[in-house]
Amino acid sequence: xxxxxxxxxxxxxxxxxxxxxxxxxxxxxxxxxxxxxxxxxxxxxxxxxxxxxxxxxxxxxxxxxxxxxxxxxxxxxxxxxxxxxxxxxxxxxxxxxxxxxxxxxxxxxxxxxxxxxxxxxxxxxxxxxxxxxxxxxxxxxxxxxxxxxxxxxxxxxxxxxxxxxxxxxxxxxxxxxxxxxxxxxxxxxxxxxxxxxxxxxxxxxxxxxxxxxxxxxxxxxxxxxxxxxxxxxxxxxxxxxxxxxxxxxxxxxxxxxxxxxxxxxxxxxxxxxx
Length: 274
Known about the structure:
Beta-Lactamase
């Protein structure tokens, strides 16, 4: 009798569960709905990220122009370029790591010829003034030949101390500068990029080298702001790439990215840059 009673209870429990369990079609419909919501959220977040990154890129352009003005250089013969380091190896950015490439973020010159930008071009971390600045932290070199052919021979020679360039690269350089200065962009113990200042006419300001290398002052403040923006942008780009690879949003990273963007926007607003 007790056996029959227990069996009946078991059967009744199974029947109740079957009745209460939603049909497989309904479960599948709910799963698809959840997936669509997550995809929509990811797309919306990606757009917000892209919009804010574009906003900050414009701000870096304004800061680049201000740096040129602060240095007092002739911007018809000189240009200032900001490069962001992109680490292709997946390791942390640091000066001992030669992996990765550089991406042009902003450039300023009053001369349209020198202000041209190739947005899709990537710059090597293995040679040239960019690589030398990245490794040394600071570069100032004012003895490049003015003659284009001699310039190519100089930068491709074996005794060229500033990261010797391959000949095919050197011949393709449009602005064969006679003076080049560079400073590494650093934020919170991370190396995030470089600033290159170059000219086709020799600089006559003897104090220019000191102003570029200084740790305080107007140029240093602008440089620090650019470094912070690039640091935030680089992390945001990495987060977005991770989400695209995983196919789903990372809810933990998003609040951090928003706070970082908002902090920079407030700082730029106080400096009169919008």
